[in-house]
Design a protein that fits this description.
Shape of chain A: globular
Number of strands of chain B: 11
Distance between the termini of chain B: 36 Å
Largest sheet of chain B: 7 strands, mixed
Helix content of chain B: under 10%
Shape of chain B: globular
Distance between the termini of chain A: 41 Å
Order of helices and strands of chain A: EEEEEEEEEEE
Largest interface: A-B, 23 and 24 residues
Structural class of chain B: mainly beta
Largest sheet of chain A: 6 strands, mixed
Oligomer: heterodimer
Structural class of chain A: mainly beta
Radius of gyration of chain B: 13 Å
Number of helices of chain B: 0
């Protein structure tokens, strides 16, 4: 069965520091993986997705993620945090079969300190 | 990218009232979803639809109901709201193809007193 684990429900970084948000998945089929961001009082916005093409995926706002099959990971990174990056981040894996429902992680809240 | 709309954005109502949360998308997507999001952030799928006249219950049991009479419209109804229904409700639709990406509306934050 598909599952997603996001390590660390809260992450705090200083402005300008590296952002690393961890996501590990379990999948019985080659996965499609997603990172979404949610700003306060808003819906979720797609940051990036892995679709079995390049293992290093670049997304919006300077974020990128690397798919590592051997580690079953899809960690999200950004070289230099900005205050505007403070938000909730969700990792998801696409389920098997024709329905392709998303299996969601519990989310990681990112705080950026001045 | 999908354009998906939810109204109202915020709703405060009393116990026992009937409410309908509206969700519309303009991209012609067949698949649509309703999620309930608790204050602790976790997303729970409560309903989904694969097209007109198709509705299914999600992973989290919900007292709400949905309908899909038109492709672009996927309203959610609570016949009798209770304080336990207080939550944020997110609507999404997904594009067709090998990798179906879900696009979200801004959400409706519901408070039942």
């Amino acid at each position: 069965a598909q599952s997603v684990t996001q390590l660390g429900s809260h992450v705090s970084v200083s402005e300008g520091a590296l952002v690393l948000l961890r996501c590990n998945y379990s999948s019985s089929v080659p996965p499609y993986l997603f990172w979404y961001v949610q700003y306060p009082n808003q819906g979720l916005q797609l940051l990036l997705k892995y679709t079995s093409a390049a293992t290093l995926v670049k997304g919006i706002n300077g974020f990128e993620a690397e798919f590592k099959k051997s580690e079953t990971s899809f960690h999200l990174t950004k070289p230099s945090a900005h205050m505007s990056d403070a938000a909730e981040y969700f990792c998801a894996v696409s389920g098997p079969g024709n329905n392709r429902k998303l299996i969601w992680g519990l989310g990681t809240s990112l705080a950026v300190n001045p | 990218e999908a354009d998906i709309y939810q109204t109202p954005r915020y709703l405060v109502i009393g116990t026992g009232k009937k409410i309908t949360l509206e969700c519309s998308q303009t991209m012609g997507h067949d698949k649509m979803y309703w999620y309930q999001q608790d204050p602790g952030m976790e997303l729970h799928l409560i309903h989904y639809s694969y097209g007109v006249n198709s509705t299914e219950k999600g992973d989290l049991s919900s007292e709400s109901t949905v309908s899909r009479i038109r492709t672009e419209h996927f309203p959610l109804t609570l016949e009798s709201a209770r304080p336990s229904h207080t939550s944020q409700y997110l609507c999404a639709s997904s594009d067709p193809g090998r990798v179906e990406t879900q696009y979200f509306g801004p959400g409706t934050r519901l408070l039942v007193l």
